[in-house]
Amino acid sequence: AERNPGQPEFLQAVTEVVDSLWPFIKANPRYAEHGLLDRLVEPERAILFRVSWVDDHGEVRVNRGYRIQHSSAIGPYKGGIRFHPSVNLSILKFLAFEQTFKNALTTLPMGGGKGGSDFDPKGRSPGEVMRFCQAFVTELYRHIGSDTDVPAGDIGVGGREVGYMAGMMKKLSNRADCVFTGKGLSFGGSLIRPEATGYGTVYFAEEMLRHAGRSLENMRVSVSGSGNVAQYAVEKAMALGARVITVSDSSGTVVDPEGFTEEKLAVLMEVKNHLYGRVSDYAERVGVHFEPGRRPWHVPVDVALPCATQNELDGNDALMLVRNGAICVAEGANMPSTADAVRVFEENGVLYAPGKASNAGGVATSGLEMSQNAMRMSWTREEVDARLLEIMRGIHAACIKHGTRDDGRVSYVDGANVAGFVKVADAMLAQGVI
Ligand code: NDP
């Protein structure tokens, strides 16, 4: 804590991982040597930079840009770019740390990184967003590359923003190799990448339920958020026969006891992705109930999929879910559950998957985009989706292998942390103290 003052999210993520690794390291003392843990909790490099740009009124604006290159032990740094006013060093360091384990779990050769800016895209014109993205890349470009560091999207950064950044990167480097993933289909993007995180989260929930002799069929599901991850989690959960009864944003929650339909989801996507509107606009359009200022966790469901942001589900929310009979929680967002909430889930036998396991489908499919670009090929939708499903099943199997306790219960937290750690740690040990 003394080394990282004022970084609560980073300390939260590190504490969770180290606590869950401790028994494994005690049983396997070679992982306690060579300063391995001390090195693993320190980013290899953290870059902070100024982003100056001119708004529509001719005013000069200054934002702060970041790229945390956490670990390149198993491959080039890889992880998203976030544009949100809450972005700071602590949040990006926690995300880059988590990303390192997540990327290892995918089995693809990708290290961990994360970046972004405190720029708030809400209320900005399309021209302002483009100029900001371009200004951001005029500094970032010197630190990234297809074999060095390959960013992608995250909160506030979707296909449009990735397109602007990849375009500026190409102009500055005079190269067309793959430096960003999540690109548009017309310039190297992969089919299924927009869907991958949400689909993967639901595939993971289905695997957990199957392992426990259940399935998503006819389950009531709450989803939080209404962005990229949330939308495709809704779509896949519906496709597997579940009834999705909530979505949300930072201003409130839509509660729809009858559940989403394909038609309603199309309206949500139109409102969010084309009109850049709010879930309250969606609720008004389709005539469903909107609860201002509330999160979804008081609504009784069988399965909860938090897909918005970190620490959006606390201990009390978790207790409410448990009391209302929830049996499964799979995180689409990164660290949406507080440490208290995780404890409540694990103590009450809820099938609980941490984001680094359940939301790894996004970065896995980004890895597939890198492969397709390097081969100058594109795979079909079915081919990418089949690989995604296989990767999610592989992560589930790794969690079972490393997270099954003596009483037969599975801790997906321990399973994911140990499985991710072993791969990164073995690579670090083999490469010496660097
Ligand atoms: P989007 O920007 O598309 O959507 C974010 C959603 O979360 C919006 O509904 C937003 O509401 C809500 N949200 C954001 N910040 C807050 C906040 N502080 N309080 C309440 N609600 C908030 O982002 P994504 O869907 O891409 O990302 C969602 C989560 O998934 C993040 O944790 C991200 O790190 C994680 N993730 C994303 C991946 C991807 O492939 N995109 C991959 C793996 C993880 P509002 O509009 O009101 O801000």
TrEMBL record:
<feature type="binding site">
    <location>
        <position position="153"/>
    </location>
    <ligand>
        <name>substrate</name>
    </ligand>
</feature>
<dbReference type="InterPro" id="IPR033524">
    <property type="entry name" value="Glu/Leu/Phe/Val_DH_AS"/>
</dbReference>
<comment type="subunit">
    <text>Homohexamer.</text>
</comment>
<feature type="binding site">
    <location>
        <position position="366"/>
    </location>
    <ligand>
        <name>substrate</name>
    </ligand>
</feature>
<comment type="similarity">
    <text>Belongs to the Glu/Leu/Phe/Val dehydrogenases family.</text>
</comment>
<dbReference type="InterPro" id="IPR006095">
    <property type="entry name" value="Glu/Leu/Phe/Val/Trp_DH"/>
</dbReference>
<dbReference type="GO" id="GO:0005829">
    <property type="term" value="C:cytosol"/>
</dbReference>
<protein>
    <recommendedName>
        <fullName>Glutamate dehydrogenase</fullName>
    </recommendedName>
</protein>
<feature type="binding site">
    <location>
        <position position="78"/>
    </location>
    <ligand>
        <name>substrate</name>
    </ligand>
</feature>
<feature type="binding site">
    <location>
        <position position="197"/>
    </location>
    <ligand>
        <name>NAD(+)</name>
    </ligand>
</feature>
<feature type="binding site">
    <location>
        <position position="102"/>
    </location>
    <ligand>
        <name>substrate</name>
    </ligand>
</feature>
<feature type="domain" description="Glutamate/phenylalanine/leucine/valine/L-tryptophan dehydrogenase C-terminal">
    <location>
        <begin position="190"/>
        <end position="432"/>
    </location>
</feature>
<keyword id="KW-0547">Nucleotide-binding</keyword>
<feature type="binding site">
    <location>
        <position position="99"/>
    </location>
    <ligand>
        <name>substrate</name>
    </ligand>
</feature>
<dbReference type="InterPro" id="IPR050724">
    <property type="entry name" value="Glu_Leu_Phe_Val_DH"/>
</dbReference>
<dbReference type="InterPro" id="IPR014362">
    <property type="entry name" value="Glu_DH"/>
</dbReference>
<keyword id="KW-0520">NAD</keyword>
<dbReference type="Pfam" id="PF00208">
    <property type="entry name" value="ELFV_dehydrog"/>
</dbReference>
<feature type="binding site">
    <location>
        <position position="228"/>
    </location>
    <ligand>
        <name>NAD(+)</name>
    </ligand>
</feature>
<dbReference type="GO" id="GO:0000166">
    <property type="term" value="F:nucleotide binding"/>
</dbReference>
<feature type="active site" description="Proton donor">
    <location>
        <position position="114"/>
    </location>
</feature>
<dbReference type="InterPro" id="IPR006096">
    <property type="entry name" value="Glu/Leu/Phe/Val/Trp_DH_C"/>
</dbReference>
<keyword id="KW-0560">Oxidoreductase</keyword>
<feature type="site" description="Important for catalysis">
    <location>
        <position position="154"/>
    </location>
</feature>
<dbReference type="InterPro" id="IPR033922">
    <property type="entry name" value="NAD_bind_Glu_DH"/>
</dbReference>
<dbReference type="InterPro" id="IPR046346">
    <property type="entry name" value="Aminoacid_DH-like_N_sf"/>
</dbReference>
<comment type="function">
    <text>Catalyzes the reversible oxidative deamination of glutamate to alpha-ketoglutarate and ammonia.</text>
</comment>
<dbReference type="GO" id="GO:0004354">
    <property type="term" value="F:glutamate dehydrogenase (NADP+) activity"/>
</dbReference>
<dbReference type="Pfam" id="PF02812">
    <property type="entry name" value="ELFV_dehydrog_N"/>
</dbReference>
<dbReference type="InterPro" id="IPR036291">
    <property type="entry name" value="NAD(P)-bd_dom_sf"/>
</dbReference>
<dbReference type="InterPro" id="IPR006097">
    <property type="entry name" value="Glu/Leu/Phe/Val/Trp_DH_dimer"/>
</dbReference>
<dbReference type="GO" id="GO:0006537">
    <property type="term" value="P:glutamate biosynthetic process"/>
</dbReference>
